[in-house]
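Q: How do we represent a protein-ligand complex in a form that can be generated token by token?
A: Start from the inputs.
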Amino acid sequence: MERTDSLAAPDPARLRASAELQQRIAAEIDAAGGWISFERYMERALYAPGLGYYAAAPGVLGAWGGSSDFVTAPELGPLFAATLARELAALGRAEALPTVVEFGAGSGRLAADLLRALDGLGWLPETYAIVEVSAAMRQRQQRAVAELPAALARRVVWWDALPDAFDALVIGNEVLDAMPVQLLARDTGGWRERGVARDADGALRWADGAAAVAPRATMAQLPVGSVTEVHRVAQGFIATLGARLRRGVAMFIDYGFPAAEYDHAQRVGGTLRCHRAHRAHDDPLWQPGLSDITAHVEFSGIAHAARDAGLELLGYTSQARFLLNCGLLDVLRDALRELPGGVAAPSDRAGVQLAAGVQKLVNESEMGELFKVIALGRGVATPLAGFAAGDRSAALA
Ligand SMILES: C[S@@+](CC[C@H](N)C(=O)[O-])C[C@H]1O[C@@H](n2cnc3c(N)ncnc32)[C@H](O)[C@@H]1O
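Then emit the structure tokens for the protein with S-adenosylmethionine bound:
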């Protein structure tokens, strides 16, 4: 974790935008009587129109060395999408589901690579609908989609809201972790909700507010002095999805743990993290709007919210397991074969890049184990290949 003073200063225009966002948040704190919840603060810092981190979105996602702040699996290369496409094509074909819905499509890279891969597999959705809260990210997605062949690009639409009832294959990579979280802090009197107050000069500071009820039994494992996150927004999102998904499968890929592990007695500082320029820091109140803020996903709560909304838990496993079950190594072999020189020239730069991307996706110390895949569904009989071996659904009971 980096100290914030060791991170390079952004350009003056971005600093001015951050100062304006800070003033607006301070005004909201005043209007609310001196305190807002961290959940509200995080919503403003990430999504305040024009100023929040994702709302302004100058770089955000992309490869090391550019103007980006972090890398996600689809940005590592085309093989993540090509592997996920196998699961989607098998389900889409067997269940006659004509729509793919992607939440939080980031740079549009996953959408573009998925459509190319699905085309290669001989199954395409009639509609590829993107639901994206940030107007700036949506513009970036539109630019990525515009580069696709017309027969693929014309299938892509942006939904401003979820329809009341729809049948679809739903995906979301690193979306749940970008949803605002409540912070709860345990003192000798019990749990209190941590929020944000302001000093006379407008500087933002932490302030513990009202007593709070611990929503997870496993939070009893955490000692006095602990801070942890409660994922009310993400669970509400799943409840809405569950109310509207008439038939289909929803798969979310993200870093996180089941409740018992999330509330491990040694995880006293919680999982809240900030990212800027490919470095992590731990001060979300510093220069609001200029760093990503994220928390690990608490997957038991997601599974319970899904069950309460009438969705079935179809599978839960590590990203490595899921991708290997879906045939990642076959996908890699085929991609290497298509390179000039084929598999026989493994030192070829493009081949090394593909292999390095795969290594990052599945290695236990990279994304392979920390990242999980959860699948939820309704009215679908086809078994999911991604959970054929190593399903850990029981861990979310
Ligand atoms: C961490 S980025 C991940 C982007 C992309 N999926 C990827 O893997 O590269 C999170 C994305 O989710 C979007 N987002 C956050 N909450 C959302 C919601 N409730 N509905 C749709 N998009 C959302 C953000 O604006 C952003 O584009």
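The chain has a mean pLDDT of 93. Residues 54, 61, 72, 74-75, 103-106, 110, 131-134, 137, 173-175, 178-179, 237 surround S-adenosylmethionine (CB under 6 Å).
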